[in-house]
Amino acid sequence: MSRIPSIAVVLEGGLVQAIIVQDWSGAIPLPRIAIVDYDTEGADDDEITRFSIGDDPAEAVCRIETPGVYESLRDALSPRALLAALGETDDDEKPSSALVLAREVRQSILDLDGRLDRLEQAPTGDDYNALYQLANGGLIDLLKTLGDPTDFGD
């Protein structure tokens, strides 16, 4: 089922420890995220990035991060669960029918497979885990849509 992607940025002591995405489509690459810290005190000159904001010069300690994918991480923070705990709900989560849901699950699996083909890489354990998460999660959602009262532990 297509959901709005969620992102969690995990900080400790003001430092980024992890960036986690959830419900990211396998059809598009993961985003590159620029981390910017304007506190340059104590930074070596080679750690400082100089850039412009409009016409104004700026400098900061910067780095690039690629997020981890929740569905392929073990024991990771779920961005969607955290948003729900904060009172944010995803009103688009309810499929219009079991048929629509089944088609969306199938398409998400095909998208992941297509991404692996485009990258011309052998599937990794993470890829198999992501595929399992897509298939299992999608089938659970489908069963719920069909009225299955089972507690799936989610």
Would you mind describing this structure in some detail?
- With about 150 residues, this protein is an alpha+beta fold.
- It has two domains: about 5-30 and about 65-145, no CATH class; about 35-65, no CATH class.
- About 30% of the residues lie in helices and about 25% in strands.
- It has three helices and six strands.
- The strands form two sheets. It has a three-stranded mixed beta sheet with strand order 1-2-6. A three-stranded antiparallel beta sheet has the order 3-5-4, with no helix packed on it.
- The longest helix is centred in the last third of the chain and has 22 residues, at about 100-120.
- The protein is elongated, with a radius of gyration of 19 Å.
- It starts with 5 loop residues before the first strand and ends in a 9-residue tail after the last helix.
Quick overview:
With 154 residues, the protein is an alpha+beta fold.
The helix/strand class is alpha+beta
* Assembly of the depicted chains: single chain
Q: How far apart lie the N and C ends?
A: 15 Å
Give the overall form: elongated
Whole-number total of structural domains? 2
- Runs in which pLDDT lies below 50 for 5 or more consecutive residues are none
Q: Helical element count? A: 3
Share of residues in helices:
25-40%
Radius of gyration: 19 Å
Summarize the helix and strand pattern as letters.
EEEEEEHHH
Please give the order of strands in the largest beta sheet.
1-2-6
- Tell me the strand percentage band: 15-25%
Number of separate strands: 6
Report the biggest beta sheet as strand number plus sense, adding barrel if it closes: 3 strands, mixed
Mean pLDDT: 83
